[in-house]
């Protein structure tokens, strides 16, 4: 931690008040826009921001009291202007504005920078933090309306007045009921959960083997082989899909005619193979990257001690390249789980996967059931990733790699 | 030893295959292709639910691919792998599929049920039996819905097709389908062309220019839609004031979802939707498909479908049987596009004209859109 000097309170009139006025003007613009007069909003916002900073500074209002007072004031204004939704928006703006005033006024904005920083460096430091925050905001924000809308009581992608005023009548779980309670969604979910893991297993096994082979220096023409193996990632998906359709259709017919397999089973085989092909490049790339750091003298040492190549692979090489294999597998899984183009071509209706159902549902119906499905999937992925991360930390702790 | 094992295994396989075939001559899995949404739901309730209840062991898989049925059937035919058994398409697509030999020809009197009073299927369907492969199911119309709360004050609600082109009286966005069919006809009707002359005018280069020029007057206020669900969504959002779509979608938005939308039936364009059976199905699947179609297009079944969606049954004999909505309990007759009150001014879609001119006018329309 850098040395932090005594906190100096900045000047009110030349710094805190104008800055607050600037931020409040931005909020004023947004609110004014909602009422159709953005410029009036900017002016009201700027004046309010200036006055707020002046009052809080001049009368030395204690932080807690000052913040609650601002939040309460703006919430009431919001309520008077519109409804309960407006009150919440007002409270949020109040919280941000009052935090901003105290952050500036108490000199907290310099808390984490060394004392010798110039004003410009301090500005840049805080701007940087602000940009980082914006990046997160733009990554996450589009998901929030999706989640919110999934509780809509109507069959449209519309924020109804009831929803905006937080009236319970505007909300319902019926889209979740639709998702969980009908074959229309449960069968595709089941199909996705059959197809994606098997395709992943195939692409991980084949991709890892291919990567190990291709990283041997004595393989002839390995650049070319590599290029061909990675081509599914480069060729436009629609081209691969068309090619696969004409390749797998006779293959499927042959399997049905000569081996007597039933149509639906053959359909799954076709989709799984097609998805495995799409997943292989990801596995090859990640495993090849990990193999770069692999010390080949270890395999020679293992051979020296009498281990055969298979034992060497599973006992020596595999544990060391496992992180690459797992991340490749994750990519392969997501590729298959998200894939809609190839399955539309290769699969028949019995192999309808979740993305396929979402695609048709969005095109033909525009029903918020898709939003419920998306919300559930996002929640599951967050839970999964959190679990994996917690397990990883736990095993690191157990191995003594991290102080915990 | 090993050889005999293989031989017996093969013969067992052959035997079971033979048995399965001998057992009723009909496949038990059936893949139906439709449009999804409320329409497919009405087919499930009126056709497949009773059908599977009557036929034990039959399973139905739905594929919502009717929108690209022509392209997909071509590809399937080329690959020799037809996975669909019965396909729901609009009449125009059925004609194309029939011409290309991708759909099976149907003999209405042989393969479809007669009316309860003994009238032959051919007479019962009448004029709606367009083409040799098409099995009509419903009459639907493409018409307009408008936001009742966005009608300007002091002006009466739109009730004339030309109100769509009148930006002064009815400001606001419009939703129109992203294809020339219907739009160019409406444009000419509102540009002073008499109803009976529309297709004659449209057959000429100048007529096509005239239609696009009329559409040009509202181009900046149009959102172009490509799926039937778009317009109800846009209307529910209040993003458009008026928009065209299929009358059943508007019915669902108004009566089932309670949206503030009104119907404008003027110059509604009738069209037909029905089944086709792909050419080249194996015998057992073909038998199942024919059995299903015979059942699903009889007089009672067609009338039943009208309980769930406001499309008119294609058989004359079904009309008197149309009753009330299955869950809302409202009288369905007045919501049918064929109801006399709604059908005061209708426009008849000309299949032959569009079969001949579609590619040409499509290209011009798309080029105009991109300008």
TrEMBL record, chain A:
PROSITE patterns: ABC_TM1. GO terms for biological process: transmembrane transport. It comes from the Bacteria. The keyword Transmembrane helix applies. It is found in: Cell inner membrane; Cell membrane. Its main location: membrane. GO terms for cellular component: plasma membrane. It holds the Pfam family BPD_transp_1. It is a multi-pass membrane protein. Belongs to the binding-protein-dependent transport system permease family. This is Putative spermidine/putrescine transport system permease protein.
UniProtKB/TrEMBL annotation, chain B:
Keywords: Signal. The keyword Signal applies. Pfam families: SBP_bac_8. Residues 1-22 form the signal peptide. The keyword Signal applies. It comes from the Bacteria. InterPro entries: SBP. This is Putative spermidine/putrescine transport system substrate-binding protein. The lineage of its organism: Bacteria, Pseudomonadati, Pseudomonadota, Alphaproteobacteria, Rhodobacterales.
């Amino acid at each position: 931690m850098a040395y932090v000097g005594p906190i100096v309170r900045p000047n009110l009139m030349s710094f805190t008040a104008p800055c607050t006025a600037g931020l409040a003007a931005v909020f004023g613009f947004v609110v004014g826009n909602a009422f159709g007069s953005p410029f009036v909003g900017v002016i009201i916002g700027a004046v309010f921001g200036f006055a707020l900073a002046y009052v809080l500074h001049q009368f030395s209002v204690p932080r807690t009291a000052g913040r609650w007072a601002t939040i309460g004031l703006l919430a009431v204004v919001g309520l008077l202007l519109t409804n309960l939704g407006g009150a919440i928006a007002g409270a949020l703006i109040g919280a941000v504005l009052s935090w901003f005033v105290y952050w500036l006024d108490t000199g907290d904005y310099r808390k984490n920078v060394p004392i010798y920083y110039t004003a410009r460096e301090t500005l840049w430091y805080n701007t940087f933090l602000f940009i980082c925050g914006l990046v997160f905001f733009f990554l996450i924000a589009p998901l929030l309306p999706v989640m919110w809308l999934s509780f809509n009581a109507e069959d449209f992608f519309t924020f109804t007045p009831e929803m905006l005023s937080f009236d319970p009548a505007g909300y319902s779980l019926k889209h979740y009921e639709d998702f969980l309670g009908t074959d229309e969604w449960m069968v595709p979910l089941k199909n996705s959960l059959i197809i994606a893991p098997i395709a992943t297993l195939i692409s991980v096994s084949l991709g890892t083997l291919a990567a190990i082979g291709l990283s041997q220096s004595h393989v002839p023409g390995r650049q070319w082989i590599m290029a061909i193996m990675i081509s599914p990632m480069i060729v436009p998906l629609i081209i691969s899909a068309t090619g696969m359709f004409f390749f797998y259709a006779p293959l499927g017919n042959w399997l049905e005619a000569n081996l007597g397999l039933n149509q639906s089973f053959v359909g799954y085989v076709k989709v799984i193979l097609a998805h495995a092909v799409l997943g292989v490049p990801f596995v090859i790339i990640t495993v090849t990257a990990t193999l770069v750091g692999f010390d080949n003298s270890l395999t020679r040492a293992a051979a020296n001690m009498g281990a055969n190549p298979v034992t060497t692979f599973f006992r020596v090489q595999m544990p060391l390249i496992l992180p690459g294999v797992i991340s490749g597998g994750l990519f392969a899984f997501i590729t298959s789980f998200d894939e809609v183009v190839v399955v539309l071509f290769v699969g028949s209706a019995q192999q309808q996967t979740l993305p396929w159902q979402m695609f048709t549902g969005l095109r033909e119906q525009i029903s918020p059931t898709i939003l419920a499905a998306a919300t559930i999937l996002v929640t599951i992925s967050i839970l999964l990733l959190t679990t994996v991360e917690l397990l990883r930390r736990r095993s690191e702790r157990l191995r003594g790699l991290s102080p915990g | 030893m090993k050889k005999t094992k293989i031989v017996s295994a093969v013969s067992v396989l052959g035997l079971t295959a033979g048995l399965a075939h001998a057992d009723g001559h009909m496949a038990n899995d059936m893949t139906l292709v439709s449009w999804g949404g409320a329409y497919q739901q009405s087919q499930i309730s009126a056709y497949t639910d009773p059908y599977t209840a009557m036929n034990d062991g039959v399973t139905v898989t739905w594929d919502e691919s009717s929108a690209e049925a022509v392209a997909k059937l071509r590809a399937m035919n080329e690959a020799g792998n037809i996975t669909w058994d019965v396909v729901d398409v609009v009449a125009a697509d059925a004609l194309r599929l029939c011409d290309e030999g991708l759909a099976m020809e149907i003999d209405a009197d042989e393969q479809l049920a007669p009316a309860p009073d003994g009238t032959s299927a051919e007479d019962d369907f009448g004029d709606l039996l367009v083409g040799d492969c098409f099995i009509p199911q419903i009459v639907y119309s493409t018409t307009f819905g408008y936001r009742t709360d966005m009608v300007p004050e002091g002006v009466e609600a739109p009730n004339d097709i030309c109100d769509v082109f009148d930006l002064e009286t009815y400001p606001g966005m419009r939703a129109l389908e992203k294809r020339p069919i219907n739009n160019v006809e409406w444009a000419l009707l509102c540009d002073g062309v008499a109803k009976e002359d529309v297709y004659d005018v449209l057959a000429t280069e100048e007529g096509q220019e005239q239609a696009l020029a009329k559409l040009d007057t509202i181009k900046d206020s149009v959102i172009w839609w490509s799926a039937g669900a778009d317009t109800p969504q846009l209307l529910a959002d209040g993003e458009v004031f008026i928009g065209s779509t299929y009358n059943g979608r508007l019915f669902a938005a108004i009566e089932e979802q309670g949206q503030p939308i009104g119907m404008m039936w003027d110059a509604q364009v009738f069209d037909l939707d029905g089944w086709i059976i792909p050419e080249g199905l194996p015998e057992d699947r073909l038998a199942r498909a024919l059995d299903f179609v015979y059942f699903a297009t009889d007089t009672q079944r067609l009338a039943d479908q009208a309980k769930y969606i406001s499309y008119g049954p294609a058989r004359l004999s079904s009309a008197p049987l149309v009753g009330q909505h299955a869950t809302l309990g409202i009288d369905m007759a007045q919501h049918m596009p064929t109801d006399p009150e709604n059908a005061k001014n209708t426009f008849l879609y000309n299949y032959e004209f569009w079969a001949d001119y579609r590619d040409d006018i499509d290209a011009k329309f798309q080029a105009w859109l991109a300008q």
